[in-house]
Amino acid sequence: MAIDTALIRRSWSLVEPRQSKVAADFYALLFSRYPQVRGMFPAAMDLQRDRLLHALTRVVLSLGEIEGLSAYLGQLGRDHRKYGVVPEHYPMLGACLITAMRVNAGGNWLPAYDQAWAAAYDLVARVMAEAAERDSHTAPPYWTATVVGHELRSHDLAVIVLRPSHPYLFQAGQYTTVQTPQWPRVWRPYSIANPPREDNLISLHVRVVPGGWVSTALAHRTAVGDTVYLGPPRGSMVLSRSTASHLVFIAGGTGLAPLKAIIEETAWMHERPSVDLFHGVRLRSQAYDLPDLLRLREQHGRMRFVLAVSDDPAHPPRESVADTIARHRLPADSEIFICGSPGMVQACTARLLRLGIPGHNVHMEAVDEGGLALPWAAPSVGR
Ligand SMILES: NC(=O)C1=CN([C@@H]2O[C@H](COP(=O)(O)OP(=O)(O)OC[C@H]3O[C@@H](n4cnc5c(N)ncnc54)[C@H](O)[C@@H]3O)[C@@H](O)[C@H]2O)C=CC1
What are the residue boundaries of the Globin domain, all occurrences included (predicted)? Predict the structure, then answer.
């Protein structure tokens, strides 16, 4: 059945102002009708509710662009294998979702909206389930990994090296999701800080964030020899086949991780591009990876490295990384990769546009703050 995007959007606009209530009602309905699925979700549901809403918004907004949506949903379907989602779960969710929207529409819900949503949901579920099924022939739902390196580089930052039990195939720049034994069913995304290696090791940069369960567990309650779990690799911030001759990388804090992986990959290229890396930190003491970056610069041979310190009275000039890039001459045809907090990414992107860099040359990971999925999605990277 064709998707009636106009009906979907009209009906969504009815419930959008009450979306938090929609999410709460959805989970209440789901758990009362199907108590057997409660165990698949974490004990605390706050983040989960936000994720559902982000995912819904994303699907509603991109229903017209079926190609992009299919790639997104396929990735989502593969990722949901780690939660134990099987095809039989999808209809349960669909029915509860439509009911939750209907009861929150203030009596304005039309029968046609039910049909439009049923058709849209059917398509979403089919794409996700098919991708998951295809994936099940070649990859496990999740990987067990042993911690083989754990280095606290400051009180709130750890670099962790993991050895997945089975080959973990990913591309430089992608991220994984991590579950620790301390927090069952709570998965958090972290970028992989190295390109694929023959020894299958992967390295993560973990900043402890206030209230960050997984980041605290990884940094302070994890040691060499412990086991953690990894979801499948995700993300599209990777090098294209036709890499430009000059690449610029702009990192904010631990947003360095995926950019370092891509730079390291370019170091081995036959015709390696020249590279600029700008690393923005608040305090000089937060330049947690300096020795490694200097080594990488040495090994690369065509890499310039600039540290931008924004808030350290002992290290003038206090300059934001956006101001730093503006001071350096960037060729207009540079391919640019940005990774960091949403505010930092936004500030840098705006500055680049003002500097005349075309938007299509700027890459960043659209790590939706929780919006990667239907109910079981992942939050922003690095929590
Ligand atoms: N750990 C990981 O694997 C990854 C982490 N991230 C994200 O990167 C961020 C890293 O955070 P931290 O390490 O705490 O770095 P941070 O937030 O302390 O920021 C580092 C740099 O970004 C600049 N900055 C921060 N907010 C800004 C704003 N609103 N406008 C302009 N500049 C701003 C600072 O001035 C500084 O130069 C987090 O949001 C995390 O989710 C992204 C990808 C991977």
Answer: 1-133
* Domain CATH for 15: 1.10.490.10
How remote is the CA of residue 254 from the centroid of ligand 1, in Å?
A: 6
pTM listed for this prediction: 0.89
Overall number of domains in the chain:
3
Tokens linked to 95? 């029915």
Q: Ligand 1 — pocket residues by CB below 6 A?
A: 190-191, 205, 207, 252-255, 257-258, 280-282, 308, 310, 320-322, 339-341, 343-344, 347, 380-382
Q: What is the pLDDT of residues 304-320, one digit of tens each?
A: 999 999 999 999 889 99
Please identify, by atom number, the ligand 1 atom nearest to the C-alpha of residue 381. 41
Residue of 155, 254, 278 with the most ligand 1 atoms within 8 Å of its CB, for mutation: 254
* pLDDT tens per residue, range 35-48: 999 988 888 888 77
Distance 214 CA to ligand 1 centre (A): 18
ipTM: 0.95
Contact indicator for 276, 256 with CB cutoff of 8 Å: no
**Structural domain includes residue 378:** no
Under the phi-then-psi rule, with left for phi > 0, alpha for psi from -120 to 50, and beta for the rest, what region is 151?
Answer: beta
% residues pLDDT > 90 (the chain): 72
CA distance 354 to 191: 29
